[in-house]
Known about the structure:
alpha+beta, six-stranded mixed β-sheet
Amino acid sequence: MTNxxxxxxxxxxxxxxxxxLFKCVKDVIEQGVSDANSKINKDPEQFDYRGAxxxxxxxxxxxxxxxxxxxxxxxxxxxxxxxxGVDYFLINGSFLLCFKKMDKKARVSSFYSKxxxxxxxxxxxxxxxxxLDILGELGILKPLPIxxxxxxxxPTGRLENIFLVNYKLGKIENVVxxxxxxxxxxxxxxxxxxxxxxxxxxxxxKSRLAANY
Length: 213
């Protein structure tokens, strides 16, 4: 089973719904990073202190995703919830999505923090009272799996990759590159669809029949 189908199973999403959601996530991250870099490049001194760029980049991505939630009918069921300073997005009432900066090994920027290690080691996720109240109103009374989607930057700050990751027992369980998954390549551009292939076969059959008469 490929990582993609493992994600479909864990996320409880159809392939169509997965593609709709995470194609949007990929587009949001690309736009968010681009917008943030544009502003950073105009005034680099404003972001020339520890953590400033990372915070601004992540805020830019989440701001655009929240706008998409309100604008898109397909995302209206997504709920934004904040707990202990961390932003989560509740998807279909079955899992939480969290945006994070990542390294090339698909590890989130807070990989070595104590709270994050407790989370990925299977420890009890510490929700805030407000988050518990919101989940309780939705009939969700047990901890939800958390999936992380993150952007990887090259040394110049440009977007290099976008990962979807989940952890188990302190290690990465599954990872897939959304950038590779949703970026057309030489094998997918202008590839005939099933309908087009059927038309080609039909034309060939008609040509053969005409030749026999």
